[in-house]
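Subject: design request, 321 residues
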């Protein structure tokens, strides 16, 4: 079988070749992948997590078809790969926070991932895709939708509160705005991309056109340093800023007095739990969640798909196996 192997970092070094089967657990035929910043940065040697093994096969946002009967999955079923490695035994796992497992990591980063035709995955990482969820919706859950949903939950959002998404046209923005809307929040977005409109926001501001006096109870900011202080400035008294990304850089100078005098909170968020992934599938049972698709590539065209990620694109970049 074939896979895309990182012999050394850099997209130009990604090699399409025969690979040995890897992983442990249920054999999965990968059917679809979605391209995200994690995969892109990993291939280019820029992830903040430890990569193993080397040479490496990336691909952390995938769905597949089960090849063997397991205890809770059957041959032929469609499944999402919950992409966290976890031991089920540490305090974090026992409290339901397997994404924070002290012996854990990210599947596809700390292990080989789904940029190969078949891979073995622990059964506890496989979540059945209900019939009401399409392949494109399903493949957008493990990173894009789950990251956005977990971030909203981390903010302890209440019905009727105002929430503002930076990077509103991005993967987490488009999905997060729809989910927040379903959860009864008053949704706003920040983006210079017109496509951010129509996903549940009352208003999309251009980056340089957020009214100075505009404030929000919750701000979701995956953009990193460039707009970090800006997003703190637009936070209401007692407001919560949730961060889970560093797309424009990882260091930022912040006005500390501005945080304590208004009792603002800065909250870290990463990935999400299996329970939340199940909750998302349930939300999709009762509500239409739209996943915009920028482009679809064949598996053999993965390098082109990753290149497309670096271009200005609108919606998910999908790879069909
Ligand atoms: Zn654990």
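Subject: RE: design request

Done. Sequence follows.
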């Amino acid at each position: 079988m074939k896979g895309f192997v990182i012999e050394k970092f850099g997209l130009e070094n990604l090699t399409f070749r025969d690979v040995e089967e890897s992983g442990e657990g249920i054999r999965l035929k990968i059917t679809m992948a979605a391209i995200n910043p994690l995969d892109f940065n990993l291939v280019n040697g820029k992830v903040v997590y430890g990569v193993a093994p080397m040479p490496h096969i990336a691909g952390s946002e995938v769905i597949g078809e089960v090849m063997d009967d397991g205890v809770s999955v059957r041959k032929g079923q469609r499944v999402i790969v919950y992409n966290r490695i976890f031991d089920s035994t540490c305090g974090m796992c026992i409290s339901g926070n397997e994404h924070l497992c002290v012996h854990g990591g990210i599947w596809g980063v700390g292990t080989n991932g789904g940029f190969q035709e078949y891979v073995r995955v622990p059964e506890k990482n496989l979540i059945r895709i209900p019939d009401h969820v399409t392949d494109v919706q399903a493949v957008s859950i493990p990173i894009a939708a789950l990251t956005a949903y977990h971030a909203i939950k981390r903010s302890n959002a209440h019905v009727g509160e105002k929430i503002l998404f930076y990077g509103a046209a991005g993967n987490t923005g488009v999905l997060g705005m729809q989910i927040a809307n379903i959860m009864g929040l008053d949704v706003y977005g920040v983006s210079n991309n017109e496509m951010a409109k129509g996903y549940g926001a009352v208003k999309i501001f251009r980056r340089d056109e957020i009214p100075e006096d505009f404030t929000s109870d919750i701000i979701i900011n995956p953009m990193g340093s460039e707009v970090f202080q800006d997003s703190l400035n637009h936070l209401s008294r007692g407001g919560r800023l949730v961060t889970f990304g560093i797309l424009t850089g990882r260091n930022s100078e912040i006005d500390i007095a501005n945080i304590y005098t208004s009792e603002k909170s800065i909250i870290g968020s990463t990935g999400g739990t299996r329970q939340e992934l199940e909750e998302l599938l349930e939300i999709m049972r009762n509500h239409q969640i739209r996943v915009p698709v920028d482009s679809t590539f064949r598996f053999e065209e993965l390098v082109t798909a990753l290149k497309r990620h670096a271009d200005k694109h609108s919606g998910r970049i999908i790879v069909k196996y």
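The mean pLDDT is 96.
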